[in-house]
Amino acid sequence: MLVKVKSIATRGIQSLAVDVEVNVSSRGIPCLEIIGLADKSVDESKGRVRTAFQNSGLDFPNKKITVNLAPADISKEGSLYDLPIATGLLCATLGLDVPEESLFFGELSFDGTLRHTKGAFLLSIYAKENGFKRVFVPTSCANEASSIEGVSVIGIDNLNYLVDCLRGGENFIDRVCIKNTPTPQTDEVKLREDFDFSNIIDQFQAKRALEICAAGGHNLIMVGPPGSGKTMLAKSLVSLLPYLSFEEAVEVTKIYSLVGKIPPNCGLVKERPFRSPHHTTSYAGMIGGGSIPFPGEITLAHRGVLFMDEFNEFPRIVVESLRQPMESGVVTVSRSKISVDFPSRFILIASSNPCPCGFYGDPKKECRCNENRIKNYQAKLSGPILDRIDLHVNVLPVERNRLLKGDASVGESSKSVRDRVLRAREIQENRFKKDRVFSNSEMSNKHIGKYCRMNDDCETLLLQAVEKFGLSTRAYFKLIKISRTIADLEGKDNIEISHIAEAVQYRSKIFL
Amino acid sequence: MAGWVSISDYEYPEGLRNSPNPPRILFYKGNWRPEIFDNCLAVVGSRKMSLYGKKVVSEIISVLSKKITIVSGFMTGVDMEAHVQALKFGLSTIAVMPCGIDLIHPRGNDFTYNEIIKKNGLIMSEYESLFQPKIWTYPRRNRIVAGLSKAVLVIEASVNSGSLITARLANSCKRKVFVIPGSIFSNLTEGKVQISKDFAEFIYSGLEINEFFNFFEDSVSSKSSIEKRENTNEILRALENDSMAVDDLSRKLGREVSDINRELTILLLKNEVTEKEGKFYAC
Hints:
The complex is a heterodimer. By secondary structure, chain A is an alpha/beta fold. Chain A has 21 helices and 18 strands. A 5-stranded parallel β-sheet of chain A has the order 11-14-17-10-18. In chain A, strands 1-2-4-3 form a 4-stranded mixed β-sheet. A 3-stranded parallel β-sheet of chain A has the order 5-8-9, sandwiched between helices. In chain A, a hairpin with a 4-residue loop joins β15 and β16. Chain A is elongated, with a radius of gyration of 27 Å. Helices cover 36% and strands 17% of the residues of chain B. In chain B, the strands form 2 sheets. A 9-stranded mixed β-sheet of chain B has the order 1-2-6-5-4-3-7-8-9, sandwiched between helices. Chain B has a 3-stranded antiparallel β-sheet with strand order 10-12-11. The A-B interface holds A 202-205, 207-208, 223-224, 354, 360-361, 363-367, 370-372, 393-396, 409, 461, 464-465, 468, 486, 498, 500-502, 504-506, 508-512 and B 47-48, 76-77, 106, 158, 185-187, 245-247, 250-251, 256-258, 261-266, 268-269, 275, 277-279.
């Protein structure tokens, strides 16, 4: 008897239809075999399904069982085919119908319960896009899967419950399914208070730069001696950023679902990602890689912050590979058999010491490096990559006596800065309604022409600055984008001279 | 014009001949004029020159008599700045190289190198052709710098720096050593204080060097006429005495950093302030 159960296979964050065809034949030597380019994790499904049947008190058919994962030419991996195979077997042996317009997905445990499986969110997205009504997922994935409207989710606890569902038919299933959990109230997200602006003494220049970063989604590099507060500043950026909008949350959740970073019983990702990969991270770990490409750090930081501490210590190939994704917001990972696009629109916060020993330019401590080492160290940050970073800031250490005396000022708290950032983001949202752009930093030259009008005086100042600091054409446009963000922070419609003048300060040379 | 002079030659600089351990042969590039050695002042200092040091070099050299020759070691930092400022204010300058006479070291300074030759200065070395600089050739080079000069001016020096070697060598062959005062918050002051306790004399203005060389006639108006010019801009006034980062300015003047940044850009473009490693100073 032949039963067909629908499931999916993931290719990057895209999903493909997979038909799980289960054939139970009375003829032939009793066995269970899986064909259809299944990798080891799929093949081991045999053992899991067989044992789960036995431990749930269900009869495992003593017949020749062949499972085909169609189409047969794309390789399948992962443990998610346990549930479709079990469903197929149950339907075949018990003579039940497979529920219509349904997708099955989940890993079985030996005791017959279903385990949390990665990718449930992608399953729901696929179901919605391709007109499937229902998805059957492990209970711990139900919240994740039900974040998408228009897809009914049936959370399966164990195999016996699955039998009940199959026996109960459509009526039973419609009664137990979860329709759609309400979209999360983003205000519930609590910001981490240990990384608040009000905990950082002085550093007003850097704080202002971070405010601009947060408002316009710009990239930032901070250069300064060790202990000057670069890491703390970077971490506080998250407290300035607006909460994820629903569309953004969907994009982020897709990625996190794919890599299995959504904990059991959780739904949409609500917090902006903050990734700080160590500087020994490999090139594939950064960009994404593997024979079936897996997202890297830059994709995990999508719509969030990628913090690269000790930027200069990263291997050159890793840093250089950031160039294209930073510009386009997408990274294409190509392997011999397959090429996958991953989204990678992140705010890059880089921090670096000015020299190998770290104290070059420190007013108090002597730098022990010789000239050539300093030059080589700084040359490692190539022109092209620095050119793509919008804001450059020098962070100098706070004087020790100011720390102790307690006369140091902390300035605004993150919350009040955040209010300004949100207003600026709102202005941008209204401006880019029709453009499929979220922030000023994503503007193309066409958008700049349209939205960044300025008078002749501004143009003159810009050109003077470009001349004086030897800026590239890209830097010129970046200057305009930063000016636009500064103007938005002030709620001004047009870019004024003062905005450009401030922006220039973040583009002047940071080194030597 | 290139050539060499031996210690037995008449043209060999007298001061150098009288110093301990003079080089037997001096290779040179440029126009060898005996009078260039008459009033030599060595200007030495740290490779990691601070903004303050940079400002001092140009301030001092701007008031020096044009008859003085600036001798230095053609190294990054204070040395190079001394050559550049000497060229700028029309003083002759001698660069003593730690490497072969045909090598431009450190790399990337071809412009200054050629300019020194063009403007009637000298490039000098005791090593021939393309001999690479070694760790021991730098202190050996310093003895020539000290030997050529009647006085040595130490701009900035941390403890154990090469500039102190030059200063001590100069003192040992009875040359005058001047030092510029510095902030006690800078590590580049430490070495200066050390030598001042032993032999060096603090000076406050380039005019004192003119006096030492007995040049009284041309008391050129100092560049520090900024002080007299009554700055109306409060940022420029704040930067008159010290280099400051944006944060310092904001704190001192009680204004927002965004505000300060805006004004600084305008001042930068007008060339009224300069920036180095995040700190600003008035030109």
